[in-house]
Amino acid sequence: MTATPPVSVGHVGTWFPDTVKSLDRLTDGLPAAQRGHARALGIDEVRAADGLTESDLAIRAAEATLRTTDTEAAELDALLLVQGRAPQYLMASEATRVQHAIGAHRALVSGVGDLGCVSVSAAFSLGTALLRGMPGFRRVLVVATSKAAAPTRYRPPMTIVGDGAAAVLLTTSEAPGPFELVDQSLRTDGAFADLFRIDYRDVPERDWTERCANEPDYTFRLAVRSRKEFLALNEDLLRRNGLTGDDITTHLMQNLSGGAFGFWQEALDVPIDPVCGRNLARYGHLGPVDVLLNMADAAPALARGAHALVMNSSPVAAWSSWLVRRTAHAATPTPGTERP
Q1: Given a cut of 50, is residue 1 above it in pLDDT?
Q2: What's the mean pLDDT in 288-297?
Q3: Do 294 and 164 share a structural domain?
Q4: What average pLDDT does the segment 112-130 reach?
Q5: DSSP labels for 278-328?
Q6: Strand partners, 46
Q7: Which one, of 5, 4, 8, 6, lies nearest residue 179 by Cα?
Q8: Lowest-pLDDT range of 211-215, 310-314, 318-322
Q9: Which residues pair with 117 in a beta bridge?
């Protein structure tokens, strides 16, 4: 029987715009109650990619990762784009636009974007399946983007959205990256499919607003359900890999708010790595980019062989956990990675 090849998670290449919007600017014009809430999220500023599309951001992050890993785009076997929530055009393909722009002409290409923040986990699942199931596949590039769809950037009662992109190379035969993807799990529940939404038909883009259809459902029902799902996901993930909670060195999550970190630390009885709060303050919420950014920033402090649990959720609703193990590969600053 052929052993399942390990999947290496390479260095994360990122790209962020130079334009910075301060908290004062972000909250100016909000109603008093929303302004007070937004100012208490733990977000100091966000990056704003005014005039650029989600594809533009994806292309820049993809090129940064290719430079960092000394990989030619023509060598990619697959390109998976975790696209944002508001494409530039209906019917057009953003994934093949990125493919053409970076020169990944022989790559199998797909967009993976319908699960919000957790779409990056679906992309990892698909990428892992391709590496282990498709003959000759050795390199899969996963690219994730975040670009605020609504002009205000404030998503009540949750977070403030920033702009940026990240890309990571998944491999089975190359020099190992900072982590090995040991295992992963993902669950969804369509009962919350449109809990958060933007009504856009017959509405000018300047008037688009992110709305929560039922705040009590988000604040209470979904929070209780999410705790239950994460406890079950993590218990199963650790059990089938012969580990316990004591074997996990650090826990990472997506960056929504300081209050969310506090909730999860209490609900799951685990500490959340401080890199998450630092990136929240600096970049705001970056959708599927958050966990990639946090994982990259946590790597230098982890010893070889240390395990990390990376948890991600989306109000659509979806939940995922990755179990990753730190490899011996050095996590030094990576040239070509655009971090302001």
Answers
A1: no
A2: 98
A3: no
A4: 96
A5: HHHHHH-B-TTHHHHHHHHHHGGGSPTT-EEEEEEEETTTEEEEEEEEE-S
A6: 21
A7: 8
A8: 211-215
A9: none
* Cα Rg, the chain, nearest whole Å: 19
Is 50 exceeded by the pLDDT of residue 70? yes
Helix (H) or strand (E) holding 289: helix 289-298
Inter-residue contact 244 to 238 (CB < 8 Å): yes
Instruction: Compute the distance between CA of residue 317 and CA of residue 303 in angstroms, rounded to an integer.
Output: 34
What tokens does 1 get?
């029987």
> What is the four-CA torsion angle of 145, 149, 155, 158, rounded to 10 degrees?
-20
Look up the CATH number of the domain holding residue 49.
Answer: 3.40.47.10
Domain count, the chain: 2
Domain that holds residue 12: 7-177
The residue with tokens 């009590």 is 216
DSSP-based three-state secondary structure for 277: helix
For tokens 């705790």, name the residue: 227
pLDDT digits (tens, 9 = 90+) for 158-214: 999 999 999 999 999 766 789 999 999 999 999 999 999 999 999 999 999 999 999
- Among 144, 177, 210, where does a domain finish? 177
Termini Cα distance of the chain: 48
Of 145, 177, 209, the residue that ends a domain is: 177
pLDDT at 333 over 50: no
